[in-house]
Design goal:
The chain is of the alpha/beta class and about 325 residues long. About 40% of the residues lie in helices and about 15% in strands. It has 2 domains: about 220 residues, Vaccinia Virus protein VP39 (Rossmann fold); about 70 residues, rRNA adenine dimethylase, C-terminal domain (Helicase, Ruva Protein, domain 3, Orthogonal Bundle), CATH 1.10.8.100.
Length: about 325
Amino acid sequence: MRHRTLGDLRPGASDYVRSRATRESGGELQRVKDTLAARGLKPLKRLGQNFLVREDLCERIVEHGHLREDDVAVEIGPGVGALTARIQRRVRHLVAVEMDAGYCEVLREEFAVVPRVTIVERDFLEFDLAACAQEHGVAKLAVMGNIPYNVTTPILEHLFKHRLVVRSAVLLVQKEYAERLAAAPGTPAYGSLTLFARYHALLEPLMTLKPSAFWPRPTVDSMLVRFILRERPPVEAPEALLFRIIRGSFQQRRKQLANTLVDALELPRERVEHLARHAGIALQRRGETLSLEEFARLARAADDTLRARGEDPR
Protein backbone atom coordinates (compact mmCIF):
# COMPACT_ATOMS: atom_id res chain seq x y z
CA MET A 1 0.00 0.00 0.00
CA ARG A 2 1.39 3.37 -0.98
CA HIS A 3 1.37 6.11 1.67
CA ARG A 4 -0.56 9.22 0.80
CA THR A 5 1.57 12.24 0.06
CA LEU A 6 0.69 15.89 -0.08
CA GLY A 7 0.31 15.58 -3.84
CA ASP A 8 -2.61 13.19 -3.33
CA LEU A 9 -4.60 15.66 -1.26
CA ARG A 10 -7.09 18.03 -2.76
CA PRO A 11 -6.32 21.79 -2.51
CA GLY A 12 -8.99 22.30 0.17
CA ALA A 13 -7.56 19.79 2.65
CA SER A 14 -7.03 21.23 6.10
CA ASP A 15 -3.58 21.98 7.51
CA TYR A 16 -4.17 19.26 10.09
CA VAL A 17 -4.87 16.59 7.46
CA ARG A 18 -1.88 17.74 5.40
CA SER A 19 0.53 17.68 8.33
CA ARG A 20 -0.73 14.24 9.43
CA ALA A 21 -0.28 12.82 5.93
CA THR A 22 3.23 14.24 5.84
CA ARG A 23 4.14 12.59 9.17
CA GLU A 24 2.65 9.25 8.14
CA SER A 25 4.51 9.19 4.85
CA GLY A 26 7.83 10.23 6.41
CA GLY A 27 7.81 13.45 4.41
CA GLU A 28 8.85 14.37 0.90
CA LEU A 29 12.54 13.80 1.64
CA GLN A 30 11.92 10.19 2.64
CA ARG A 31 9.64 9.65 -0.37
CA VAL A 32 12.35 10.90 -2.74
CA LYS A 33 15.07 8.79 -1.12
CA ASP A 34 12.89 5.66 -1.09
CA THR A 35 11.80 6.20 -4.70
CA LEU A 36 15.36 6.55 -5.96
CA ALA A 37 16.75 3.72 -3.83
CA ALA A 38 14.06 1.30 -5.07
CA ARG A 39 15.23 1.87 -8.65
CA GLY A 40 18.96 2.21 -8.08
CA LEU A 41 18.90 5.90 -8.96
CA LYS A 42 20.73 8.79 -7.38
CA PRO A 43 20.95 12.55 -7.99
CA LEU A 44 23.64 13.51 -10.49
CA LYS A 45 25.58 16.63 -9.57
CA ARG A 46 26.75 17.19 -13.15
CA LEU A 47 23.12 17.47 -14.24
CA GLY A 48 22.20 19.82 -11.41
CA GLN A 49 19.69 17.39 -9.88
CA ASN A 50 18.53 18.83 -6.55
CA PHE A 51 15.04 17.72 -5.50
CA LEU A 52 12.53 19.85 -3.62
CA VAL A 53 11.74 18.14 -0.31
CA ARG A 54 9.66 20.77 1.52
CA GLU A 55 6.01 20.02 0.82
CA ASP A 56 4.81 23.41 2.07
CA LEU A 57 7.19 25.15 -0.34
CA CYS A 58 6.08 22.92 -3.21
CA GLU A 59 2.52 24.08 -2.59
CA ARG A 60 3.55 27.74 -2.48
CA ILE A 61 5.58 27.41 -5.68
CA VAL A 62 2.65 25.96 -7.61
CA GLU A 63 0.29 28.59 -6.18
CA HIS A 64 2.62 31.24 -7.61
CA GLY A 65 2.04 29.71 -11.04
CA HIS A 66 -1.44 31.29 -11.15
CA LEU A 67 -2.62 28.26 -13.10
CA ARG A 68 -6.12 28.06 -14.58
CA GLU A 69 -8.43 25.08 -14.99
CA ASP A 70 -8.27 25.34 -18.80
CA ASP A 71 -4.47 25.72 -18.93
CA VAL A 72 -2.06 23.36 -20.63
CA ALA A 73 1.10 23.46 -18.53
CA VAL A 74 4.63 22.32 -19.31
CA GLU A 75 6.90 21.31 -16.45
CA ILE A 76 10.65 21.44 -17.06
CA GLY A 77 12.63 18.66 -15.39
CA PRO A 78 10.00 17.17 -13.04
CA GLY A 79 12.45 14.67 -11.53
CA VAL A 80 10.38 12.39 -9.32
CA GLY A 81 7.32 14.62 -9.27
CA ALA A 82 7.44 16.96 -6.27
CA LEU A 83 5.68 19.69 -8.27
CA THR A 84 4.04 17.45 -10.87
CA ALA A 85 1.24 16.12 -8.65
CA ARG A 86 0.36 19.62 -7.53
CA ILE A 87 0.45 21.17 -10.99
CA GLN A 88 -1.76 18.50 -12.60
CA ARG A 89 -4.57 19.11 -10.10
CA ARG A 90 -4.88 22.71 -11.28
CA VAL A 91 -4.81 22.40 -15.09
CA ARG A 92 -6.56 20.72 -18.01
CA HIS A 93 -3.39 18.95 -19.10
CA LEU A 94 0.23 18.77 -17.96
CA VAL A 95 3.17 17.86 -20.19
CA ALA A 96 6.16 16.93 -18.02
CA VAL A 97 9.44 17.06 -19.98
CA GLU A 98 12.20 14.98 -18.37
CA MET A 99 15.43 13.87 -20.05
CA ASP A 100 16.43 11.21 -17.47
CA ALA A 101 15.02 7.81 -18.47
CA GLY A 102 15.01 6.57 -14.87
CA TYR A 103 12.92 9.47 -13.63
CA CYS A 104 10.57 9.09 -16.60
CA GLU A 105 9.92 5.52 -15.49
CA VAL A 106 9.09 6.76 -11.99
CA LEU A 107 6.73 9.41 -13.34
CA ARG A 108 4.96 7.04 -15.75
CA GLU A 109 4.32 4.64 -12.89
CA GLU A 110 3.15 7.39 -10.54
CA PHE A 111 0.77 9.00 -13.06
CA ALA A 112 -0.29 5.93 -15.04
CA VAL A 113 -3.93 6.43 -14.06
CA VAL A 114 -3.94 10.21 -14.55
CA PRO A 115 -4.90 10.79 -18.21
CA ARG A 116 -4.27 14.51 -18.07
CA VAL A 117 -0.52 14.00 -17.50
CA THR A 118 1.84 13.26 -20.41
CA ILE A 119 5.44 12.31 -19.67
CA VAL A 120 7.87 13.26 -22.45
CA GLU A 121 11.40 11.81 -22.30
CA ARG A 122 13.39 14.59 -23.94
CA ASP A 123 15.84 17.38 -23.32
CA PHE A 124 13.69 20.49 -22.83
CA LEU A 125 16.06 22.41 -25.13
CA GLU A 126 14.85 20.14 -27.95
CA PHE A 127 11.17 20.26 -26.98
CA ASP A 128 8.93 22.06 -29.50
CA LEU A 129 6.71 24.35 -27.45
CA ALA A 130 4.81 25.63 -30.49
CA ALA A 131 3.93 22.08 -31.56
CA CYS A 132 2.83 21.28 -27.99
CA ALA A 133 0.49 24.28 -27.89
CA GLN A 134 -0.97 23.32 -31.27
CA GLU A 135 -1.43 19.67 -30.30
CA HIS A 136 -3.40 20.63 -27.19
CA GLY A 137 -5.39 23.39 -28.85
CA VAL A 138 -4.19 26.38 -26.84
CA ALA A 139 -2.69 29.69 -27.89
CA LYS A 140 -0.27 29.87 -24.98
CA LEU A 141 1.30 27.51 -22.47
CA ALA A 142 2.05 27.97 -18.78
CA VAL A 143 5.57 26.78 -17.94
CA MET A 144 6.94 25.81 -14.52
CA GLY A 145 10.06 24.09 -13.29
CA ASN A 146 12.80 23.49 -10.76
CA ILE A 147 15.46 23.75 -13.45
CA PRO A 148 19.15 22.72 -13.45
CA TYR A 149 21.05 25.90 -12.68
CA ASN A 150 23.89 25.06 -15.06
CA VAL A 151 21.58 25.40 -18.07
CA THR A 152 19.45 28.34 -16.92
CA THR A 153 20.51 30.65 -19.75
CA PRO A 154 19.91 28.08 -22.54
CA ILE A 155 16.48 27.34 -21.05
CA LEU A 156 15.60 31.05 -21.02
CA GLU A 157 16.84 31.39 -24.60
CA HIS A 158 14.59 28.49 -25.62
CA LEU A 159 11.60 30.01 -23.86
CA PHE A 160 12.22 33.45 -25.34
CA LYS A 161 12.54 31.93 -28.80
CA HIS A 162 9.03 30.51 -28.34
CA ARG A 163 7.62 33.54 -26.53
CA LEU A 164 4.56 33.76 -28.78
CA VAL A 165 3.24 30.47 -27.38
CA VAL A 166 4.30 30.91 -23.73
CA ARG A 167 2.16 33.04 -21.41
CA SER A 168 4.44 32.86 -18.42
CA ALA A 169 7.21 30.78 -16.89
CA VAL A 170 7.65 30.33 -13.13
CA LEU A 171 11.14 28.95 -12.55
CA LEU A 172 13.49 28.24 -9.69
CA VAL A 173 16.89 29.76 -10.44
CA GLN A 174 20.02 30.50 -8.46
CA LYS A 175 19.44 33.61 -6.33
CA GLU A 176 22.57 35.32 -7.63
CA TYR A 177 21.36 34.70 -11.19
CA ALA A 178 17.95 36.21 -10.35
CA GLU A 179 19.70 39.27 -8.95
CA ARG A 180 21.58 39.67 -12.23
CA LEU A 181 18.30 39.52 -14.12
CA ALA A 182 16.77 42.26 -11.97
CA ALA A 183 19.88 44.48 -11.65
CA ALA A 184 19.79 48.24 -12.18
CA PRO A 185 22.18 50.14 -14.49
CA GLY A 186 25.48 51.02 -12.86
CA THR A 187 25.46 48.09 -10.42
CA PRO A 188 28.00 45.23 -10.54
CA ALA A 189 25.29 42.64 -11.33
CA TYR A 190 23.97 44.61 -14.33
CA GLY A 191 25.02 43.13 -17.66
CA SER A 192 24.04 41.79 -21.05
CA LEU A 193 22.03 39.00 -19.38
CA THR A 194 19.93 41.63 -17.59
CA LEU A 195 19.10 43.37 -20.84
CA PHE A 196 18.52 40.14 -22.74
CA ALA A 197 15.91 39.03 -20.21
CA ARG A 198 14.34 42.49 -19.96
CA TYR A 199 13.97 42.67 -23.74
CA HIS A 200 11.98 39.43 -23.82
CA ALA A 201 10.05 39.34 -20.55
CA LEU A 202 8.73 41.12 -17.49
CA LEU A 203 10.34 39.65 -14.38
CA GLU A 204 8.87 39.26 -10.91
CA PRO A 205 10.94 37.81 -8.02
CA LEU A 206 8.56 35.71 -5.92
CA MET A 207 10.32 33.97 -3.03
CA THR A 208 13.75 32.89 -1.80
CA LEU A 209 14.47 29.25 -0.94
CA LYS A 210 17.31 28.16 1.32
CA PRO A 211 19.47 25.10 0.54
CA SER A 212 17.54 23.12 3.19
CA ALA A 213 14.53 23.07 0.84
CA PHE A 214 16.40 20.64 -1.45
CA TRP A 215 18.09 17.26 -1.39
CA PRO A 216 20.95 17.07 -2.00
CA ARG A 217 21.46 20.56 -0.62
CA PRO A 218 22.92 23.03 -3.12
CA THR A 219 25.61 25.43 -1.94
CA VAL A 220 23.60 28.54 -2.85
CA ASP A 221 20.23 30.12 -2.16
CA SER A 222 17.56 29.83 -4.83
CA MET A 223 14.83 32.19 -5.99
CA LEU A 224 11.49 31.61 -7.63
CA VAL A 225 11.00 34.04 -10.51
CA ARG A 226 7.99 34.67 -12.75
CA PHE A 227 8.73 35.56 -16.38
CA ILE A 228 5.81 37.09 -18.27
CA LEU A 229 6.77 36.73 -21.92
CA ARG A 230 6.38 39.83 -24.08
CA GLU A 231 4.67 39.53 -27.43
CA ARG A 232 6.56 42.62 -28.57
CA PRO A 233 9.87 44.05 -27.30
CA PRO A 234 9.65 47.09 -25.00
CA VAL A 235 11.95 49.12 -27.30
CA GLU A 236 12.17 49.69 -31.03
CA ALA A 237 15.53 48.74 -32.49
CA PRO A 238 17.06 46.19 -34.89
CA GLU A 239 17.42 43.22 -32.53
CA ALA A 240 20.66 41.76 -33.91
CA LEU A 241 22.37 45.14 -33.96
CA LEU A 242 21.05 46.04 -30.50
CA PHE A 243 22.60 42.96 -28.90
CA ARG A 244 25.78 43.35 -30.92
CA ILE A 245 26.23 46.73 -29.24
CA ILE A 246 25.18 45.43 -25.82
CA ARG A 247 27.56 42.46 -25.93
CA GLY A 248 30.42 44.66 -27.09
CA SER A 249 29.78 47.12 -24.27
CA PHE A 250 29.81 44.49 -21.53
CA GLN A 251 32.73 42.50 -22.90
CA GLN A 252 34.73 45.64 -22.18
CA ARG A 253 32.56 47.07 -19.42
CA ARG A 254 35.22 49.36 -17.94
CA LYS A 255 35.86 51.06 -21.26
CA GLN A 256 34.03 54.13 -22.46
CA LEU A 257 31.47 53.86 -25.25
CA ALA A 258 33.83 55.72 -27.57
CA ASN A 259 36.03 52.63 -27.61
CA THR A 260 33.49 49.82 -27.33
CA LEU A 261 31.35 51.14 -30.20
CA VAL A 262 34.36 51.45 -32.51
CA ASP A 263 35.13 47.77 -31.86
CA ALA A 264 31.56 46.45 -31.87
CA LEU A 265 30.46 48.29 -35.02
CA GLU A 266 33.83 48.31 -36.81
CA LEU A 267 33.38 51.99 -37.60
CA PRO A 268 35.90 54.84 -37.55
CA ARG A 269 35.86 57.15 -34.54
CA GLU A 270 34.24 60.06 -36.41
CA ARG A 271 31.31 57.86 -37.49
CA VAL A 272 30.83 56.68 -33.93
CA GLU A 273 30.86 60.26 -32.69
CA HIS A 274 28.22 61.17 -35.28
CA LEU A 275 25.82 58.34 -34.36
CA ALA A 276 26.28 59.00 -30.64
CA ARG A 277 25.30 62.64 -31.13
CA HIS A 278 22.31 61.46 -33.16
CA ALA A 279 21.31 59.15 -30.30
CA GLY A 280 21.95 61.79 -27.63
CA ILE A 281 24.36 59.53 -25.72
CA ALA A 282 27.67 60.85 -24.34
CA LEU A 283 30.61 58.76 -25.49
CA GLN A 284 32.36 59.28 -22.15
CA ARG A 285 29.82 56.98 -20.49
CA ARG A 286 30.40 53.28 -19.94
CA GLY A 287 27.97 50.73 -21.29
CA GLU A 288 27.20 49.46 -17.79
CA THR A 289 25.40 52.77 -17.06
CA LEU A 290 23.01 52.64 -20.03
CA SER A 291 19.40 51.55 -19.86
CA LEU A 292 17.81 49.28 -22.47
CA GLU A 293 16.12 52.31 -24.07
CA GLU A 294 19.47 54.12 -24.36
CA PHE A 295 21.05 51.08 -26.01
CA ALA A 296 18.07 51.01 -28.38
CA ARG A 297 18.70 54.64 -29.33
CA LEU A 298 22.31 53.78 -30.14
CA ALA A 299 21.18 50.78 -32.20
CA ARG A 300 18.72 52.87 -34.22
CA ALA A 301 21.39 55.51 -34.87
CA ALA A 302 23.94 52.83 -35.82
CA ASP A 303 21.40 51.25 -38.16
CA ASP A 304 20.92 54.59 -39.95
CA THR A 305 24.70 55.11 -40.18
CA LEU A 306 25.44 51.66 -41.56
CA ARG A 307 22.60 51.75 -44.07
CA ALA A 308 23.74 55.17 -45.30
CA ARG A 309 27.08 53.53 -46.11
CA GLY A 310 25.32 50.71 -47.93
CA GLU A 311 26.34 48.16 -45.29
CA ASP A 312 24.28 45.33 -43.85
CA PRO A 313 23.63 46.39 -40.22
CA ARG A 314 23.48 42.79 -39.06
